[in-house]
């Protein structure tokens, strides 16, 4: 009896721990948190000041460990912008370091980027030097003012913009002042980004999904190596897990990923949508193998903080017993459903949906994934 109780507690802890993997990326507080840190550089003040960049397009955070990371982020996440559009964003004064041939306060690389003469401190010969004109929003190349457009600049905050028509110069648009910061060489880019960093606690950082750098854990690799168009319906992909012997079908426009640390965990989501602003759904599939015999009831979660239980059922799916539980977050429109499918007394597949979106839309997709989930006999590894 006592042993049974201990076992149950252990299982609940492990289930909660696993659910924390997807949970941390999806709780109500995050929606506000993410919108506050979107496009910013975050410094882990409780660690050693490790820096992260939150990509405003995916709401994922990227590790900024070394100058090379900043350079890779610039290369991979930088978005091309025309010379005409970049002029609409004011230049920040903070990054005017580097060789300055004409000694007008603007380094040569910035003069190349803005099109002034790096060997003439007053390019348009109007009595005001190039730097003074730029910092006061005047055109250093001729008459009048720069075409600063604050609304346009606001639409670019947090992005890294690349001057494709120039020499590929990169600028970071700081969300704190809507100004552009020149990212010259990798070292400069790294220092500038770090200097603009905002402190964040480990707890809050954990609520922002981390970008998965390992290609083998990313969608394209998994789709190529583990999926095929479903034979029954060409709007679906069939995923086959060759390590843990199960398969399921999912919508082919969804993305599939694995986390860095758990190869028994799969994330499925409509990643084309922004996680929070467009309320995408996230489905987590976890293969669980225990070293003791268990029953489905060991996986039962009777209550969760700040939720109301609205689903509890046991049914048979594809000849396997399942336990399905659903919770509604009482203070928000988000909800979650967890279904545990039993293969045998030691192997289980847990499929969970978390969403802030339309309940019917996501629950239909979820139920279809559940219906298609089946175990493969390990003695028959090649027959899929
Ligand atoms: Ca100069
Ligand atoms: Ca000049
Ligand atoms: Ca001038």
Notes on the structure:
This protein has 384 residues and is an alpha+beta fold. The protein folds into two domains: 5-28 and 213-377, Mog1/PsbP, alpha/beta/alpha sandwich (Protein Transport Mog1p, Chain A); 31-205, no CATH class. It contains eleven helices and 19 strands. The chain has helices at residues 2-23, 28-37, 67-77, 83-86, 108-114, 130-135, 150-155, 186-195, 202-205, 219-226, 359-372, and strands at residues 41-44, 51-55, 60-64, 79-81, 160-163, 169-174, 179-183, 198-200, 227-229, 236-241, 246-251, 255-257, 265-269, 281-289, 307-317, 320-329, 335-342, 347-355, 374-375. The chain has a seven-stranded antiparallel β-sheet, sandwiched between helices. α3 (67-77) crosses α8 (186-195). The longest helix has 22 residues, at 2-23. The radius of gyration is 26 Å and the shape is elongated. The chain starts with a helix and ends in a 9-residue tail after the last strand. The structure holds calcium ion (3 copies). The site of one calcium ion has 11 residues, from loops. One calcium ion binds at residues 102, 104, 106, 111, 116-118, 120-121, 123, 130.
């Amino acid at each position: 009896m006592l042993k049974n109780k201990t076992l149950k507690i252990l299982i609940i802890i492990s289930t909660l721990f696993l659910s924390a993997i997807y949970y941390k990326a999806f709780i109500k507080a995050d929606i506000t948190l993410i919108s506050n840190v979107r496009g910013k550089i975050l410094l882990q003040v409780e660690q050693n000041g490790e820096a992260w960049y939150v990509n405003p397009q995916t709401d994922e955070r990227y590790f900024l460990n070394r100058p090379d990371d900043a350079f890779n982020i610039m290369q991979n996440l930088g978005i091309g912008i025309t010379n005409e559009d970049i002029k609409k964003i004011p230049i920040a004064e903070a990054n005017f370091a580097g060789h300055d041939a004409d000694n007008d306060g603007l380094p040569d690389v910035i003069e190349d980027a803005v099109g002034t003469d790096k060997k003439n401190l007053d390019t348009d010969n109007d009595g005001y030097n190039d730097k003074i004109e730029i910092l006061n929003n005047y055109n250093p190349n001729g008459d009048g003012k720069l075409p600063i457009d604050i609304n346009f600049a606001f639409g670019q905050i947090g992005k890294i913009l690349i001057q494709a028509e120039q020499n590929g110069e990169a600028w970071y648009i700081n969300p704190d002042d809507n100004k552009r910061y020149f990212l010259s060489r990798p070292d400069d880019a790294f220092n500038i980004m770090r200097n603009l960093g905002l402190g964040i606690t480990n707890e809050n950082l954990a609520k922002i999904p981390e970008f998965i750098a390992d290609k083998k854990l990313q969608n394209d690799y998994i789709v190529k190596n583990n999926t095929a168009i479903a034979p029954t319906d060409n709007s679906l992909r069939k995923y086959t897990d060759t390590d843990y012997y199960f398969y399921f079908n999912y919508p082919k426009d969804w993305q599939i990923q694995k986390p860095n640390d758990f190869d028994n965990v799969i994330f499925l989501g409509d990643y084309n949508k922004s996680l929070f602003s467009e309320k995408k759904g996230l489905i987590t599939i976890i293969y669980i193998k225990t070293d003791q015999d268990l029953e489905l009831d060991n996986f039962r979660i009777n209550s969760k903080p700040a939720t109301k239980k609205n689903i509890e059922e046991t049914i048979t799916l594809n000849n396997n017993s399942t336990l399905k539980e659903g919770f509604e977050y009482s203070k928000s429109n988000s909800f979650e459903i967890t279904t545990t499918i039993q293969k045998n007394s030691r192997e289980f597949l847990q499929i969970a949906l978390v969403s802030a979106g339309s309940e019917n839309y996501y629950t239909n997709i979820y139920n279809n994934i559940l219906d298609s989930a089946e175990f493969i006999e390990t003695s028959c590894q090649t027959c899929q």
